[in-house]
Each structure stands twice: as C-alpha cells, then as structure tokens.
Amino acid sequence: MHREPVRRTVRDHQSFRSNRRATVAQAGDEDVAAAVAAARQAFDSTWRKTSGVERGRLMVRLADLLEAAAAHMGTLESTDNGKVIRETKPQMVFAARAYRFFAGYADKLWGAQLPLDRRDVFDYTTREPLGVVALITAWNSPMGLLANKLAPALATGNCVVIKPSEHASATTVEFCKLVEQAGFPPGVINVVCGAAETGRALAASAVDKISFTGSGGVAREIAAQAGRNLVPVTLELGGKSANIIFDDADFDKAVSGALAGIFAATGQTCIAGSRLLVQRGIHGRMVERLAQRAGAIRMGNPLSPATEMGTAANEPQFARILRSIEAARAEGAQLVAGGKAATAGELAGGFFIEPTVFDHVDNRMGIAREEVFGPVLSVIPFDTEEEAIGIANDSPYGLAAGVWTQNLPRTLRVTRELRVGQVWVNTYRSLAVQAPFGGVKQSGFGRERGEAALDGYLAPKNVMIDFSGEDFDAFAVKT
User: Fold this and answer.
1) Class of domain 6-237+443-463 as given by CATH
2) For 284-335, what is each residue's pLDDT tens digit?
3) Cα(352)–Cα(139) distance, integer angstroms
4) Where is this region: Disordered (predicted)?
C-alpha cells in the first residue's frame, strides 16, 4: 500500500560532519483512505462510546509517557529541524501539560437544559464529537503544534488522522510508540507521512473537520477543499507581528523581549515579533543595543544547552530567508547587524543565518509586509501612540502583538485597538495551555489551546420533548 519510501537526510548536529538518514514512507491515496477508514471504524465502534473518564485516563497516561521521554524527543526534534535543545525539550513538557489540561475536560463536556416559553416542553442540548478529524502540522514545532490539535480532539471524543510536515516527521512517528504504550484503541490515532500530495489527499478525503497549521498559500487550498466538502476548518497561519516599544518602557526588559520575539527559534515561528516599532525618543539607543546583542548571540550545535540560536530548518527555507534579506537591502532598508549566512568554524556547511537587524524600515516595504520566517528584524520608528496603532494594524496579518509600556491607561487603549488574536504586555512569546490562541485576517481563524479550543471539535445537538399530551395543528409551526 505504500509508495517507494521518500529518503531524506537529517543532519547530525552533534558532529556537524556526518549525516543521519531517516526513511519516511510517502503515503499514497490508498494509504490515506485506509487511515481515514481505520479512524472511522474506531470512532463508530469504540471511541465515541468510550466514557470521558476513560478518555481522560488515557490522555494522562500519554502525558506521563511524553514527559518521561522529553529528553529523547527533544533531541530527536532538534536533530530533525535544527531548533535548539533548550527549547525543544521544554516544548515536550509543555505538550504533556496540554494533554493533561484537556484530559480534565473529557468528562466535563456539559450540555444545558433550556427554559422555553412553553412549560410543557423539555429542551436540552448536548455537545457531541464531530467524528474523524484531519490534523496537518508544520515543521517548526511538530510536537507542540500537534498537542494544540490532538489534545482537544481526543478529549472531545474524535478520532484523528495526522499528517506531519515532510520536512520534520520523525517525532510524530516516534510519538506513535507512546500512543501504543498509553493503551489507546487501534484506529483512534493514525499518521500518514508524505509531501504535498499526501496532504491534498487527506484534505479531500471523507473527514469531518480539518485543522491546519502552516502557510497561507496551502491554507487557501485546504479551505477551498473543505468548502467543496462542506466541512469546518481551523487555520493557524502566519504573522507579521508588531512588537511596540514606547519610550516609558523598562528598556532592558524591552530589549530582551525584542530579541525573544525574533531570534528565539531562529525566527521560525508564526508569532515572531518581526516588526519592532520603537518610539522615536529611544529609537537610536534601542537599535544600537539590539545590534550589539544580536552580534553576541551564540550559534552552533543545537544539541548544546549553551547554543541560543540554531539553523534554518531545511534548505528551501534557508534560501528563502537569504532572498528576503537581499530584497530588503534592495528596497533601501538599512542593515545594522547580520545580513548573510553564518559560515565561521563549525557553522560552515550548515543552514545558519546571522541574526539580522534592519533599521528605518518603511511599513510599505516587502520586508515589513511579508512573512520571512527567519531571524530578520525590521525596526520601524514612530512618534505617537496613534501612529503606532496604525502601523501595527496596517498588515494583512493579525496573529500577535507586543506592547512595552509602564503606563496602564496606554496599555488598555492600545491592546483594545490592536486587531490581533494575542497581545503580550511587557513580555513576549509567553504561552499557557489555558489561554486561547489564534489569529484574525490572513493569520487564520478558530482557536487552539484553552477552553475555546473544545468548541472546534464539538457539534451542539438540541433535543426537544413535548410532554403536553395535546394534539396540534399539523400545518402551522408550533412555538
């Protein structure tokens, strides 16, 4: 049933000289159909009849196993996509937290009794699982992104077919071992690996919902296919987030927040604060400090705890980031740090890119409007609060934003006006499983994490019981 396996090279970041090979099967149309059929069979025969208490127990067991394997899974993910171990290992623990959080909801999916105008009609609602859900994840944080989707899907009683990115499939496949150890019934959780054609086959299959994290271009294809099949979608897409620093901010803390916003995870994150809006009174000082700090970032072996920034995740992304840097220079953005591939010493031959800072960026430039998904910061000066809000909102994206100020009224005004799904104040890139996450505009729709995520995997059902014993007019609606 499998096509000839696709062979892809995974760089061994421990030596930077040898290569490890991972063989990932390219699932064909028949494989996708078989996975969906297995999920449907499990849903109809077993999972939808499994109590919430039992679903929660299995999810907690899975969380325990993932947390115990955090070091192994973190090393595997860092080796696969170049993200530093100081982030991937904690991400495994955070993913485990998500499974525990949603496990607590598995037996608490309340319905409601509704008081109607007629006292002789009893009305109630239930919330029921959708059925079989396709979960399509990206390469930058495979296990974290999967937990955002899988945890609420399982808690609400759905079965799933997972399609990881072809650029980073290893941890998702390894995760299946933990699923088996946890004791989930066969067919509840299924994985199909492959490139774009596998994703298209899954999106076109007989699933009841699609949840996708990735690029806007692919999202448009998925949304169009979902429209043809009339199934709901959740889309968690990109961003060009504005990180706004006012002149009354705690300066040192704001510098750290700016660095975290763009250089953590090598900038390969949808929430990257890639547009740094700095009030004119502190603009020069801020740029000078950022250039100094960017030049001191430790790059190297992603498996070393001392490394602060790893590689671009794959060769196409590496080339794309470098093209974006050259395009920004051609547009007239002022380069103050970085700007090229990093090739010194052990970095030679890898997909390392210097932490890059552009100053005096105009918000109309491509570098300020297009998602780079790399360690490239655009600094945009502003004068007034109103100007900052206008620049921040002048974007096709609306995922996240940061606000740095010690002025409470300003905090309330600015956070109210920003058209995004997530705002951080005096912090950046902070996550909590309890907090809903998602965007507006071209950053997608629907929410992951938090109680709000449950609604994306449930369908309300209304039941109306007439106990009046009275006959009624068959040709008039009864109210």
Assistant:
1) alpha beta
2) 999 999 999 999 999 999 999 999 999 999 999 999 999 999 999 999 999 9
3) 17
4) 1-23
